[in-house]
Amino acid sequence: MEIRVINLNKAFGSHAVLKDINMVFPDGKRTVIMGDSGCGKTTLLRILMGLETSDSGEIVGAPGNVASAQYEVVGAAPNNAAGAADNFERAQHEVVSAPGNVASAQYEVVGAAGNAARTQHDVVGAPGNAAHTQREATCMPKHISAVFQEDRLMEDFSVISNIAFAAEKSVTTKVILRHLDEVDLRDSAWQCVRELSGGMKRRVAIVRAIVAKKELLLLDEPLKGLDEQTRERVAAYIRRHSDGVTTIMVTHDIDEAPIMDAAVIRMNKPAKSVTMRV
Question: Domain 27-266 is in which class?
């Protein structure tokens, strides 16, 4: 089923960021949202994730029946983790402190060993208050994987541990290494993330999102900071592993839309009374 954004509005104080936005994202297809900075692209993604509330409007559709908007967002590292030894043969990972207000939402690491339970609000390491969105989201997918504008990695852990942290238990070392090889990071698999360059960290964040279980993949300027050759290689990697997955990517770079082989939605600044279908 497609995802439909219906008459969505969002303002921060007196500044309207989204006004009467209507969009349709086809099920299992890639869509690129293009627009200048400040037109509301990131705000729209955050509303889709359940990390931001709209002032009015509705988001409907997608696989699964999660009528109460129970979200699972993989892609943002928590502040602290206990028992996360750099033995990625599934060390016991437990979220101790997640950013933002977790008092009204139970945070849980999905894919960490020994943690098979599911809470009502499975938001993986995502900041903010996730216990909302019942008003604006109906039947959204439970498993959402994301690449944020910031890499949001655990700097003191290895590359492979960062990816294993968000992956399901069935994802083996061999599988993760194969993914890293596709983005030219295999030789850095055991390296501490804080030792990596910005472009290398970006690729780790992308691989983490791709490897994680997902029904919806949200990408906020995933290719930023990559040189042209690396960008094309990573774009090809994303295309290969997002076939059949509803994927929404935002960018302000007109050159990125064609290499993603995706339908394009253009948002203007400010976004006012926009009705679009791809």
Answer: alpha beta
